[in-house]
UniProtKB/TrEMBL annotation:
GO molecular function, one term: glycerol-3-phosphate dehydrogenase [NAD(P)+] activity
Name by which UniProt lists this protein: Glycerol-3-phosphate dehydrogenase
Xref: InterPro entries: 6-PGluconate_DH-like_C_sf (IPR008927), 6PGD_dom2 (IPR013328), G3P_DH_NAD-dep (IPR006168), G3P_DH_NAD-dep_C (IPR006109), G3P_DH_NAD-dep_N (IPR011128), NAD(P)-bd_dom_sf (IPR036291)
EC numbers: 1.1.1.94
Annotated residues for binding of NAD(+): 91, 148, 263
UniProt: substrate binding residues: 114, 263-264
Species this chain originates from: Thermonema lapsum
Gene3D superfamilies associated with the record: N-(1-d-carboxylethyl)-l-norvaline Dehydrogenase, domain 2, NAD(P)-binding Rossmann-like Domain
NCBIfam families: PRK00094.1-2 (NF000940), PRK00094.1-4 (NF000942)
Presence of the UniProt keyword Glycosyltransferase in the record: no
Gene Ontology BP terms: carbohydrate metabolic process; glycerol-3-phosphate catabolic process; phospholipid biosynthetic process
Gene Ontology CC terms, in alphabetical order: cytosol
Active-site residues per Swiss-Prot or TrEMBL entry: 199
Domain annotation Glycerol-3-phosphate dehydrogenase NAD-dependent N-terminal: ranges: 8-165
Length: 336
């Protein structure tokens, strides 16, 4: 198969998840990857040394698949049929500000972002669809359970590719499947995307609980109650018959709540141990998406009138400096 027959895929972002996505796609002989790396020095380093110096630095970039690394976003978008967005939600608007609808014309967009666009109360797929005049049927999301660090280690992992258009899900799932990743298509775009956002808030709650000294018994009940909260809010926003025992919902929640690689759990643990939000953020090299998600989900749950005591408690701790111990005493009494 010559290069003109390959699937041209743009990957936007240079963090650990973007790097993991590049690694997965580079296993597929049918793709040619165009990678947008915002920092020109980082882009030059990747071109020269074939690895990301800042994230998953042990992952060697395959030059036969990653054909173009650039800090020019329009340049990276131009040849792509698919665009994978892997930029933290808080920075998506700024990062994509150099582009217009013409740069996104006829493209299929896959979001690997786990967050709400600040002040917009919109999912990343919804915002991109509106901003760049793309049909929602051409949008998809990548969900776990999957940590970038385990992709780097080539441990068996599972992904869900969700879209309103099942043909889109099926096609991209094939591109994201390799010897250590099984990607499956799914049709609940918004349910999967909202769950991927909320599970980061729950992981912060689990980390706070651990930092406060609560044990495994408490955390198990915390996660069970959190799953009910997630279902209540999703059903209010986007009613659909869905079983949250599906891998893309429950599996993603569990790995983020319990894993040693979960940056959101790590961030929450620091808060529970007495760190201020600012000091915890400064100490962590990577962004904990759940911090930004807590504010967005708080505003959305208020809008829909859905009571979510665990996620509301995380919001109050992070944004109103409410004492973590006091908040978790209330959460403990509300759970069953």
């Amino acid at each position: 198969m010559n290069s003109t027959q390959k699937q041209e895929i743009a990957v936007l972002g240079s963090g650990s998840w973007a790097t993991a996505i590049v690694k997965i796609l580079s296993e597929n002989e049918q793709v040619a990857i165009h990678w947008w790396v915002r920092n020109p020095e980082t882009a030059e380093h990747i071109r020269t040394y074939r690895h990301n110096p800042n994230y998953l630095s042990d992952v060697e970039i395959n030059p036969a698949r990653v054909v173009h690394v650039s800090s020019s976003l329009p340049e990276v978008l131009a040849p792509a049929r698919w665009v994978v967005v892997a930029i933290p939600a808080a920075f998506v608007k700024e990062a994509l500000s150099s582009t217009t609808a013409k740069h996104w014309l006829s493209k299929k967009v896959v979001s690997g972002v786990k967050g709400v666009i600040p002040e917009e109360h919109l999912l990343v797929t919804q915002w991109i669809s509106r901003e760049f005049e793309l049909a929602e049927e051409n949008m998809a999301v990548i969900a776990g359970p999957c940590h970038a660090e385990e992709i780097a280690l080539e441990r068996q992992s599972y992904l869900t590719i969700a879209s309103l258009n099942l043909a889109i899900s099926e096609e991209f799932a094939r591109l994201m499947s390799c010897r250590y990743v099984k990607a499956s298509p799914f049709d609940d775009l918004y349910g999967v995307e909202y769950c991927a956002i909320m599970k980061n808030i729950i992981a912060i709650a689990c980390g706070i609980a651990h930092g406060l000294g609560f044990g495994d018994n408490f955390q198990a009940v915390l996660v069970a109650n959190a799953l009910r909260e997630m279902k209540a809010l999703i059903d209010a926003i986007y009613p659909l018959h869905r079983e949250l025992t599906h891998t893309s919902y429950l599996g993603d929640l569990l790995v983020t709540a319990y894993s040693q690689f979960s940056r959101n759990r790590t961030f929450g643990n620091m808060i529970g141990r007495g760190y201020s939000v600012k000091s915890a953020q400064m100490e962590m090299k990577m962004i904990a998406e759940g911090y930004y998600a807590a504010k967005g989900i708080h505003e959305i749950s208020c809008h829909y009138g859905v009571h979510c005591p665990i996620m509301e408690g995380v919001y109050r701790i992070l944004y109103e400096a409410a004492p973590a111990k006091k908040i978790f005493d209330k959460i403990r009494e509300s759970m069953y």
